[in-house]
Amino acid sequence: MARGKAPSQRQLRVGEELRHALAEVFERDSLRDPDLQGRTITVTEVRASPDLKNVMVYVMPLGGENIDGVVAALRRASSYLRGEIARRLRLRNTPRLSFEADRSFEQASHIDELLRDPHVSQDIKHATHPHDTDGTGGNGSSS
At how many degrees (to 10) do helices 78-88 and 67-76 cross? Predict the structure, then answer.
């Protein structure tokens, strides 16, 4: 996908169909790799290239445990998964699958942690009320 350009309706639709198909494959637990057996894997997003020949699949194992091992196993299983997708969906070309860990949950958690820090919350309070030095909301009275 080109930088700064929004995905087309077709890219979004194909990405969503692929997300559902992969979730179905993962749900049936037909994967033999030891790093994948017995794991619940969530497909959080699928981004298709403009020509629909390549997709990036963002995944997260339940609890975030062994995420790097799960992603490596999915990469090893990508040709098998591509075949499963071809059987489930009617697409002119079955796209090549690339897998990445979805780190957005970690990033959101880190941002929440930063915002809860007393020094940061103090700075935020002063930034939203820069003239409020007496803690009264800027009106000078303490009613």
Answer: 70
What is the rounded CA–CA span in Å between residue 28 and residue 50?
A: 30
- 36 inside domain: yes
User: Does 142 map to a domain?
Assistant: no
pLDDT single digits (tens) 81-136 = 999 999 999 888 999 999 999 877 666 665 767 677 777 666 666 666 655 555 55
Predicted model pTM: 0.71
pLDDT computed for residue 143 by the predictor: 47
Query: Within a domain: residue 138?
Result: no
Q: Which residue has better confidence, 120 or 40?
A: 40
Position 38, amino acid: G
Range of the domain at 39: 9-102
For the domain that residue 15 is a member of, what is the CATH number? 3.30.300.20
